[in-house]
Amino acid sequence: MSAMQDLARIPKTNPAEILHQRDGIYAPELLAAAILGLDLFSWLAKTPAQAATICGSLGLAERPADVMLTLFCAMGYLEKKTGAFHLTELARDFLVRESPWFVGPYFAQFTDRAVYQGLIQTLRTGKPGRWMGANAEQAWAEAMRDNAFAEQFTGTMDSRGAYVGPVLAANLPLRTSSHLLDIGGGSGIYACCIVARHPHLRATVFERLPVDRVARNWIARRGFAERVEVRAGDMFRDPLPAAADVHLWSNALHDWDEPTVRRLIAKSFAALPPGGLIVVHDKHLDEDKTGPLKTAAHSVLIMAGTEGRFYSTLEMETFLKEAGFASANHRATTLDYSIITAVKP
Fold this sequence. Notes:
The protein is an alpha/beta fold and 345 residues long. It is 45% helix and 14% strand.
């Protein structure tokens, strides 16, 4: 048995700026696509419009358009007025084709890049492309069925969770809870951090093949195999494991569209006992979806590779209320992450 890893330690420094270099890499490509591929800003200069009108007029799918408009509000290029998107003075000066200071040619080299072309396709179809330019002609969800990709991707997320997990654990109200179910829990890093912080708690990681095997290896390596078990299953098709009075959705809901998120939250509500707690741990946009900028930029990466996006606090709280949960509470944690908790009455 491996020695139990100390998962309560947090370094004195903060890796936010380092991780943002990776998380925001698609945002400049999306800006280029809007300037050159869509000529969005020149169109809005003549016709300020609501999102539905923009989608219909420019032939855009709703989900990627939502991500794009949120990003440009966060960047200070668009502003919302009574539901319509208007150009800011900055955008009118530099992003409109008719302006003498138009910077479109400065972005011309983007148009031959695979990411740029993939974003144009996603904007038109709403369908995700290849994850991070991977060679496999598969979106992220399907690529995760491949053993090598699942191992690599799970390790990627684990490296971030080693910093984020202890902060999450410190912010959870779990004194009266007994068993946590980490749904789509990846390597199990969050479940391990939580039971390390709350020694009375046991946890189960629910993951599909082949990620369940990856999770068992990581959990055993950390020395938590006796307190964190792994159950294999499909969260869409299989019943959620019983006996848990806390459900954790950490970085799992943002991979899916709104109807799917609603369905998954409703599934948690049905499985939890009265008084059970749901925890949504993720990056969340502001209620009006105009920021924060780093979350909006990261949402482009999520939109391009998955079927989802980052949701606002208001959207997520609405999903929880619709499912029957009550007493929703939002709390910031670290690295632009936050938790939204709610209780099954």
